[in-house]
User: Fold Iron-sulfur cluster carrier protein from Flavilitoribacter nigricans.
Amino acid sequence: MDKSKIVRALAKVIDPTTGQDIITRSMIRDLEVEGNNVNFTLELSSLESKHKQDLNFACIGAIQEVYPEAEVNVHMVSVNAGASEPTTVLPQVKNIIAVASGKGGVGKSTVAVNLALSLKQTGAKVGMIDADLYGPSLPTMLGLQGKRPTVQQVYGKPRIMPLDYQGMPVMSIGFIIEPEQAVVLRGPRLAGVIKQFISETVWPDLDYMVVDLPPGTGDIQLTLVQSVPITGAVMVTTPQEVAVVDAVKAMNMFLLPQVNVPILGVVENMAWFTPKELPDNKYFLFGEGGGKKLARMSNSMLLGQIPLVQGIREGGDAGRPVVERDDDPISKDAFRQVAQNTLRQVAIRNEMIAPTQIVKMKQ
Ligand SMILES: Nc1ncnc2c1ncn2[C@@H]1O[C@H](COP(=O)(O)OP(=O)(O)OP(=O)(O)O)[C@@H](O)[C@H]1O
Assistant:
């Protein structure tokens, strides 16, 4: 029997927790073929061990399809044995970055989308969840209006396949219901949708998952911190005092001792206005210093300042974000700097602090 044929057969076995095949996920070790005997070890996380039997049968079936005479012995081991608290939610996602703001309209979604795409431009694997269930803007900003995700059966369970924007998997309530219907969703339904986006969607291996939160503090933020371990939050504010005051309230939710999500830094959006015809001019319409102030208050850093320019709004409306175009290098650079600083802050955070735990709160 040919070992490489067996590997190719095993590559058809899908791990139901991630939707990826067990070869891509490097779950097979010590594959040995002797006569009719095929022996190997299948490494499972504690979450995958729920599917132990299914996976065992799937492996045997896949090999016997090629070699009906094969005697297959699958030795299953748990890779998390002895670990204190294995990550069981989105184990294939290395970092989850929540983008939050105090009030609406400060450009949180614009920052989230351009940050995600700038991270992707560094070569990282990035996905996005639009958790702004009341006002989903991702479909418009990425030109995906009217598109619907497909549902596929993965081991007998229906799973959502995210939509794709230029190689970036994305999910939004706007892909499921019409935007004007979103407001009718209430507490438990909202929590259900967030959980579907996390646990019932087939996300590939990702370096960063960027989550666009609704403004303020509410059920959705609470559901999210109870559902996934958030690596850190990026706060978006405009420079004026009132925006900062609201942003502090939103920020304080992340810093609650039982939530304990670190603030990676602050993005000051609409920092100054630059007219198209006078690209070197800066008019500080909303005052100055809000971003720095918020960064100081959260003991974090100002990740960057984004100007108020027509191209950013046009990019969002046209479904082609400014960092994906070449007609506004200044804004593109500003977002690139935000992404570089975010990468650095995530790396420092992961070096210095233990992984975030999912919040267990009495409701
Ligand atoms: N720096 C900017 N320059 C020009 N227009 C911008 C800028 N940032 C955001 N906008 C525009 O402002 C509007 C609001 O932005 P966005 O939807 O990102 O805000 P938001 O904070 O996510 O709002 P909400 O959460 O209330 O939906 C959009 O039309 C967007 O294109």
Summary: The first strand starts at residue 28 and ends at 34.
